[in-house]
Amino acid sequence: xxxxTKRWQALGFLVAGAFLSPLDYFIVNMAxxxxxxxxxxxxxxxxxxxxxxxxxxxxxIVCGGRxxxxxxxxxxxIWGLYLFLFSSLACAFxxxxxxxxxxxxxxxxxxxLLAPQVLxxxxxxxxxxxxxxxxxxxxxxxxxxAVAGQLLGGVLLMTHWGNLSWEMVFLVNxxxxxxxxxxxxxxxDNNGTEKGAAIDYKGALLLIIALLLLICPLIFGxxxxxxxxxxxxxxxxxxxxxxxxxxxxxxxxLQRPVLIDPMLLYNKQFATxxxxxxxxxxxxxxxxxxxxYLQEFLHWDAIDTGFAIIPYGIAFFLGPLLVARLRFxxxxxxxxxxxxxxxxxxxxxxxxxxxxxxxxxxxxxxxMAGLGHGTMMPVMMRTAIALVPKEKAGLASALVSISMQxxxxxxxxxxxxxxxxxxxxxxxxxxxALAIATIALFQIISLLISRRLFELRNNAFNTIDK
Length: 466
Description:
GO cellular component, one term: membrane
Number of helices: 19
Mean pLDDT: 81
Shape: globular
Pfam family, one: MFS_1
Transmembrane segments: 12-32, 44-64, 76-99, 105-126, 138-162, 168-187, 199-220, 226-245, 273-293, 305-326, 333-354, 360-381, 393-419, 431-449
Number of domains: 2
Strand content: under 5%
Low-confidence stretches: 461-466
CATH architecture of the largest domain: Up-down Bundle
CATH class of the largest domain: Mainly Alpha
CATH topology of the largest domain: Growth Hormone, Chain: A
Largest sheet: none
Number of strands: 0
Radius of gyration: 21 Å
Protein name: MFS transporter
Main location: membrane
């Protein structure tokens, strides 16, 4: 079979499978109050239900990209679908909050095998003229997941099919995974398969432990009133992350298997893209705080809560489609995206600081923020993967994906912790406003980094001209 002949059909099933990863994030956020009522879970346990999935996803996504390079992207993608299928069933029928958290951990492993195969396959299956459109389709999925996650989550939570409530947000994954397993089998060859290659298991273990030490203290610090040892654990995580990088450099020099190619991080343009991707995914904090605010403070039902986030989700979906059609420079798109993100979140924060109920102006500011997010995502992903050769596609796409996921987990942990902490002192409305304003402040840092990226690109072009 000629893989290029069926590349668009294959992309459809790849994207549908990858769609499950962000969908599960958005839809589970909608179910947090129901899960809390079902199990009597604490705020930290609720944050962990979200974070353990994203953290596992982030820590192992580099391994997922490497496994695709070694054993073939089709094979690893199907393995990921099976793991996601069975872990979703385990989540749905969890007897207590501990089992649910463990099942979410396994679900994160399955998700880590899905996303890197999509970006790497786009780099291999599509020529340079089609890659922009293909990446746009993939990016639009995240916006669609935001819309579908909120609306579908609300509908499923309110329907109570067969006396099931929050369980349905996991069971909805079952038919999608089955369709993708069948579809990808007939539309894609097993591209990748590096003979004689191996996986850097020591590097993988170092990375996983480092990320756990960095992220978990953010979630549990409030519960223990931020003692000194919480910060010591975070410092240990940072130190271990440095040890991980040195290990990868040494392994690369000795021509041993590596988890990440450190030479990619010495590519200044590519390396500068990663912190920008990391920071704009702090928007994940909105999807932890907003549904909880509407349901717990304003006492909205799940369907009304789902509709409240629709302006952001629609704009998030439209952003990548507009990027594929409009003719702006990369610099222009990045400035537009960051401006919309900052303006949208600051506007939303002000409206909730001086009021409590969302209204038409709130919908406009959330639409602005969603459009900024949807504009940034495809531009940054396309820019990053275009800076590396095809044979590095799997490793590069994994680094892009890990930046996205760690950004989402870190942002969710920081913004969520800030929100839950401030509720006790300033009340729900101001706590939510300050948490959302913090997302905007991080985008200012991203804007400063973007100026550095533009300088590097201009210097590169000037060198070529000379």
